[in-house]
Here is the input.
Amino acid sequence: MTISGRRRDHFIAESAREPFEVSAMTVAPRERLDELLDEPARVHAWRWHLFDEMGFSYTAASTLARSRADTHAVQQSLERGCSKNLVLRIFT
Here is the structure.
């Protein structure tokens, strides 16, 4: 992964001007993250990410992720012109 064209593990902190090392304790690879989370937590994180990508606020995305809202139905409602507030009221 890169940060402003540089590899993350060679990123130079602006304030310290020293190399910033990313340890395995601070940034877990995707495989390690999957090991740490149980299935319901992974599903919630995936659903939250989808609703976040649709433009919902953190709280609204979290509320929708916990609900039984169909992600495709939410996306279609937004594409058809429903406001995010109305979609939230309909699906929660």
Remarks:
- Residues 9 and 21 are 5 Å apart (CA to CA).
- The mean pLDDT is 77.
- The first helix runs from residue 30 to 36.
- The chain has two domains: 1-27, 37-91.
